[in-house]
């Protein structure tokens, strides 16, 4: 190949590499100061999926604000569509109805302009509600009240059910993060921002001097908020980050008290208290736990004593790096044909509709180690009404993520 043809070919390759359409949803989220690498197709596929952990370590709420600053929608507190009646903040009649089977089914329609990856991101965010709470998001048939999830201008939602079709805006370029989607869906379920709770002054100090007068109403406290008898949650997906609305770079607007170093704002998705609050508000009887440390352990109730009959528990393992690995240390379950009685089942993802990693398992043989394909794994433990045993004990760790560079080095 002569030099000229080589240069043309090289230019073509470079164009093909750099011009590859990176999914829109990462556009606003990939600005980093890291050294630029030549982008290859493989790198693009390694970009965080909409449902994955944000590598940039940016608070969920800061992502929301970044997108919403260009929104023409009038918003309160950064992302809430004001109600016509302002006194409705107590939201007594704006919960979604519960079916007789205890499930709260919330009908939704999706913007037809969403592409497959957007739809998957939204479904993944919804699936965690279904796995951990009694909230199920279901495709709308003819229900009067429903969520219209659209790529409007920004990430925003109404507070609670307002009647008819109500928009939850999940814009394609910037809102397609699991935590952001869950934040907006929680507003629609009837939750306010955590730091606007009536008791917030016992837990955080609002640094008014760093908040411009125009933004101060966004830090309003709701004296009659429904706190559900559950503790203040610094790690709620509904909490602002420390620098939200600051007018002075480096100066926090919300400081936890008494210990200012407690992390606030969220990057991963719903917290255990977020889940507990949903279950309390909607009278769900659910046994569900999120384990989101880099490693940890889980056991069946009472272990090593016998577990109870008729239990139904799930653990969502959510590590920060890419793959979660599960290791059983003890395993003793009632043995039945096909494990139809008591069993443990493990899913590759955050919901029971995720692929199965370990199908129903019972008896006393310790299962092999299990590695998920991502940072999410769901462990389900079901027991029937007859016979018990000592149950199980397991540990999990994050398997170090393999970057291409380390594979080739
Ligand atoms: Zn919000």
From TrEMBL:
Its EC number is 3.4.24.-. The keyword Phosphoprotein does not apply. Residues 1-19 form the signal peptide. Gene3D superfamilies: Collagenase (Catalytic Domain), Spermadhesin, CUB domain. Binds 1 zinc ion per subunit. The keyword Protease applies. GO terms for cellular component: cortical granule; plasma membrane. It is an enzyme of class 3 (hydrolase). Pfam families: Astacin (PF01400), CUB (PF00431). Its cofactor is Zn(2+). Keywords: Cell membrane, Cytoplasm, Cytoplasmic vesicle, Disulfide bond, Fertilization, Hydrolase, Membrane, Metal-binding, Metalloprotease, Protease, Signal, Zinc. GO terms for biological process: proteolysis; single fertilization. Disulfide bonds join 91-94. The active site is at residue 184. Zn(2+) binds at residues 183, 187, 193. This is Metalloendopeptidase. The lineage of its organism: Eukaryota, Metazoa, Chordata, Craniata, Vertebrata.
